Amino acid sequence: GNGALALRTLIYDRWASSIPAEAAAQTIQSLPGAVRVAVADISRRRGLLWLQRGEEEAGRTSLQRAIDFAQTVDDRDAVGDEVWADGRYNLAYATYALNPKKLSSLLSAAEGSTSVAEQTPTLPVATDAIDLATRLLESLHRNYADQPGVTPAFERAMGVLYNSGHFDTTKPADDRLVYYAYAMFQSRGDYEQAAELYNQQLRTHPNYL
After folding, report:
1. Is the pLDDT of residue 202 over 60?
2. Is 102 helix (H, G, I), strand (E, B) or coil?
3. Residues 6 or more apart from 175 whose CB is under 8 A from it?
4. What is the mean pLDDT of residues 155-182?
5. How many CB atoms lie within 10 A of CB 74?
6. Do 154 and 141 meet the contact criterion of CB atoms below 8 Å apart?
7. Integer Cα distance of 209 and 207 in angstroms
8. Which of 86, 29, 89, 91 has its CA nearest to residue 63?
9. How far is CA 139 from the centre of its chain?
10. Is the Cβ–Cβ distance between 134 and 158 less than 8 Å?
11. How many CB atoms are located within 10 Å of the residue 59 CB?
12. pLDDT band at residue 181 using 50, 70 and 90 as cut-offs
């Protein structure tokens, strides 16, 4: 339950704090995959908190640490689906947070998190992953649809969100529905399908027309 989760988080937090910032790659690789991904997750959260507080250097350092640890759990066969998916999500989120105005970083983050949702849709992190991917890609598509890679990544992520059968009733699906209907159907002349989607928007949602 929540108590066990809190205890596990505390243990991983202390473990993360005990690993020197300058730890060698060999030292990091010697740790269990679950510990490495926990350090990545904690470092990402800390980095975001530092940035919110205006501590730019501390925030960026912590986000880079998250990336360094998350990159070590990329062997799915070795670490298992859950550790791999959590690692990919943390890598994507930290990459985006470290370079929120760099198109290549945003695309990399979005495509990485789309892959998590696409390949491990039943894991708890999958909904967070498709939320991150589609949130980033909606913004990119609104402003940079003509840039290489943006529209294909947008269409792929939206396909996972609405057509995979795993996420179409989630909050991210509600949040993206209006723009999805416009970009994929109304703007291409399919007004009937767009109207049908608009009618599916929850009336309590801020995007309700």
Report:
1. no
2. coil
3. 131, 135, 205, 207
4. 92
5. 12
6. yes
7. 6
8. 91
9. 14
10. yes
11. 20
12. confident
> What average pLDDT does range 173-182 have in this prediction?
88
Task: Count CB-CB contacts under 10 A for residue 194.
Answer: 20
Task: Write down the number of H helices and E strands in the chain.
Answer: 11, 0
Backbone angles phi, psi at 169, to 5 degrees: -110, 15
Centroid of chain to Cα 1: 24
Contact 194, 156 (CB under 8 A): no
Three-state DSSP state, 68: helix
- Cα 117 from Cα 157, distance rounded (Å): 9
Q: How far is CA 62 from CA 5, 28, 94, 202, in A?
A: 22, 15, 9, 38
Cα 94 to Cα 7, 117, 137, 185, distances in angstroms: 24, 17, 16, 32
Amino acid at 20: P
Mean pLDDT of the chain: 86
Tokens of 99: 């370079």
Neighbours of 202 (CB within 10 A): 11
Residue 19 token pair: 């690993």
